[in-house]
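Good morning C.,

I know you're traveling, so I'll keep this short. The sequence:
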Amino acid sequence: MCGICFVCSFNETEIDELISCNQTLLSRRGPDCCHNKSIEIDEIRLMFQGSVLWLQGEQPSPQPFEDPQGNLLLWNGDILAGYEVCKEISDTKYISDALGSKEEDDIILFFSKIKGPWSFVYFRKEEKRLYFGRDMFGRHSLLWQKPQEVCPIFMITSISHRKENVEEIPALGIYYIDLNSLKVLSDMYVNLIPWSHRVAESLYDLESFIHVKQRNILSPVSTPLNTTIVDERTIDFLRTLPCSLGKGDTEQLYSAMKTEIDNLLNVLCCSIQRRVNKCPQKCQNCTRSVECNHSKIAVLFSGGLDSAMIALILDSCVDAMESVDLLNVAFAKKHSEDEKERKKRDKNSKLGIHSDVPLDYNVPDRITGRECWKQLQEMRPNRKWNFVEINVTSDELAKERESHICHLVAPLMSVLDDSIGCALWFGGRGQGSISGTPYTSPARVLLCGMGADEQLGGYARHRGRYNAGGWPALLEEIDLEISRIHTRNLGRDNRILADHGRAPRFPYLDEDVVSYLNNLPIWMKANLDMPRGLGEKLILRVAASHLGLTTAAGLPKRAIQFGSRIAKLENSKEKGSDSCTRLLSNSS
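The tokens, ready to paste straight into the viewer:
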């Protein structure tokens, strides 16, 4: 993971101030090396800055990366498939070498074939043209500050201190700006070459700042969503299936979709293996010259279905001697007292004897996390599974939110963004204990379960749509979920999780996984005539139960803000969509 930043202005002082302001946030994303380079085009000054997290190649590749022609590349991403990049060089160098001699059509074609998360800024010196963009799912953060008359600065950055005029760049395709004809920044416009699957969508509501080109980029997801409606014959068959995950029932369900489950497990294993392979064989704490058996990979782990499946499959993807960290976050709640204890405390208080109410971290995700961890130990006893209990007090939460997390969540600002962002930040930090002994995860890569619910009908709103409109409404909702995933929360999650100098990666959003799930009939992904805890994400639940993850297989969806109990710490009358004043308290 890297922090990248590009600033364009006529005023050198303004650029220096902006770069200095974001320096700390950028360097936390990329702690291994930091460089910058400035160039001038006529009266315009361009500044490129990169902070690199070393994950590929024999040593870090400083950014911006400059080729012999003077082209400059800022790259934050992983080429997981689509191109064969040898382990001796970084993606950054590979891309720079590949793009150096290409024309515009070939540059666009190159990015269309990358499978993996990415964001980038690329300056072509001869044409004086700047390209930038994010992958089709928006898995890596990229923000912009558009020029205005009162603030004539154009900025593209992974992260920024909270400001009113900073926004997420829509992951609609690849953008470019011609700088050779630019005279006044406030008159700047951006050209967009959209992804092919966006062409059919309405792009009319984009600002006049963005000019959509007639051409497009082919999507790396090869298979569109299967929108075949379930027919009466299939409905009759579905009525014969059991509605539980008991042993005999699981095997009957497994037999009904054996080929599809086996194929899904294969494509998920490939997805996780790709993300493991793009990680050095040294943890954060060990030198680059020595391999170690410490945890290089961690899982954001609630013990729920999505994270449990990632952990189980991960076991087959990493060296047998290497430990795996399972990061489980809980926010403190006051321990409940019986009447006798309460009266005793009240009496002591009147006598001037005060004692703190003990804190209770036995929240839902902690309970299910422990249960699933024990099951993993039984199923894979040769693996060292580190169950890391991350306990957060309300005081620590308030302190970190006000001083730091509020900027990572920005430009989003809802109550829901606050709850999820804070929970992910403490979870991703990995600072807790193992069996009471203090421990901080040294993992360089963090695997997360985002993306499964959107594709497999895992949210309550999917069941609501199905109840209201049947299979067509459910298909419509899943199609909408997949198409808008780039606009919702992945940029925020990337900013939050990458802040600890480790790379968050999302196996369920691998292009080949998405293509495979798109191909499946809707009833295998979600059969919402079945009860909660079975019908949603059906194929994944049956796969988990068949493999032996019986605890996680039947757990209903529980969002991290509720499972970790962070949502219980604040104003219970708040709605998730409300603006969160806690994020604005120190945003200047």
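Safe travels,
E.
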